[in-house]
Amino acid sequence: MEITWFGHSAFRLDFKGTAVLIDPFFTGNPAFVSDRAAAIEGVSHILVTHGHGDHVGDTLGIAAETGATVTTNYDLGMWLVSKGLKNFNPMNTGGTTDLGTFTVTLVRADHSSGDLVDGIPIGLGNPNGVIVKAAGEPTVYHMGDTDVFSDMGLIAELHAPKIAMVPIGDRFTMGAKSAAFAVKRFFQLDAVIPCHYGSFPIVDPTADKFVAEMKGHATRVIVPEKGRRVTV
């Protein structure tokens, strides 16, 4: 499997001839420095963890251009359908769907999910993390935006992820210390990839504090260069 980080919480997974985007926040993302056409080339699926603009991002535009199927919680998905989304795979927390070369499971995240309509906040379902499983590939857990919570232990027991994308930027999600605590307390990962940092001034600018907190632990910390694929 190859994983590409596009800054903030946006990722691309490439495996078995399948290309999947997670939280494709490109437009307006100060950390997005990649070529957009290359980033979306061949994409067949988009997974969205929750309804905030920095995670929904360019989902509608990319789906229209590529015909990609969008998987997210039912409420957010139906809101996207009302805005023109054609291919929607509806789910909710705890559910799993088979998408051919992989399955996706939505799991809990401790956060919020919504947008503004005419200046009024609306809820867009519950926030989630996503579990991606493909035969012969490491199980991937994108935590979405979240705090540490004890049921991460159940997620680890049920799904045994080997690669995790973990928010570390603080203020809106876990900071470095909490994120490292979650990884060390609940998971047996081959590698962890920090995210949700280095984009807006209001969140942590680098992964340095997280790397320091993980020092000496067996889990490999991957801090990828934006837009460059890493093999896991």
Automatic annotation (TrEMBL):
InterPro entries: Metallo-B-lactamas, RibonucZ/Hydroxyglut_hydro, UPF0173, UPF0173_UPF0282_UlaG_hydrolase. Residues 7-196 form the Metallo-beta-lactamase domain. It holds the Pfam family Lactamase_B_2. GO terms for molecular function: hydrolase activity. SMART domains: Lactamase_B. Keywords: Hydrolase. PANTHER family: UPF0173 METAL-DEPENDENT HYDROLASE MJ1163 (PTHR43546:SF3), UPF0173 METAL-DEPENDENT HYDROLASE MJ1163-RELATED (PTHR43546). Belongs to the UPF0173 family. This is UPF0173 metal-dependent hydrolase CH338_12205. It comes from Rhodoplanes elegans.
